[in-house]
TrEMBL record:
It comes from the Bacteria. This is DUF2871 domain-containing protein. InterPro entries: Cyt_c_oxase-like_su1_sf, DUF2871. Residues 134-155 are annotated as: Disordered. Signal peptide: none annotated. It comes from Streptomyces glomeratus. Keywords: Membrane, Transmembrane, Transmembrane helix. The chain crosses the membrane at residues 7-23, 35-58, 70-92, 104-127. Pfam families: DUF2871.
Amino acid sequence: MRKILNTAHIYMIVGLVSGLYYRELTKAKNFTGDTQLAVVHTHVLALGMLFFLIVLALEKLFTLTSVRLFAWFFWTYNAGLALTVVMMTLHGTLTVLGHSSGEAISGAAGLGHILLTVGLVLFFITLSKRIPSVSRTGGDTAASRLPLASSAEDR
């Protein structure tokens, strides 16, 4: 659990620093246009800090780390987010400095998004392995207490 908390903490720091970087760089260069630097701050805070705080709560409830796929999710997702954020920062910085970014930056950002997607799929597989499935035949579950849908004949 400490690793998940530390990860969220690191993303909080990176998110706040990226917001400061955006503000100071655009102010220093008198830049007023659109740049990807404007959204790096929120991406890091939402996809990094907030996401891992949610993972921390789910770990407490379901011990996700006991599933071997958790490590694959953790490292794949973090690699994807790091690559995506670095490419967004590079692209945004080049925009502020008046340079164009090349195809390599777009390709690397695309790879980052693919890794994020694979990481999310692994996360949901991990989560599904730890949440018990509902049995239709046994036990008193919330689903078994729901009223049956009425048919047209019953109306």
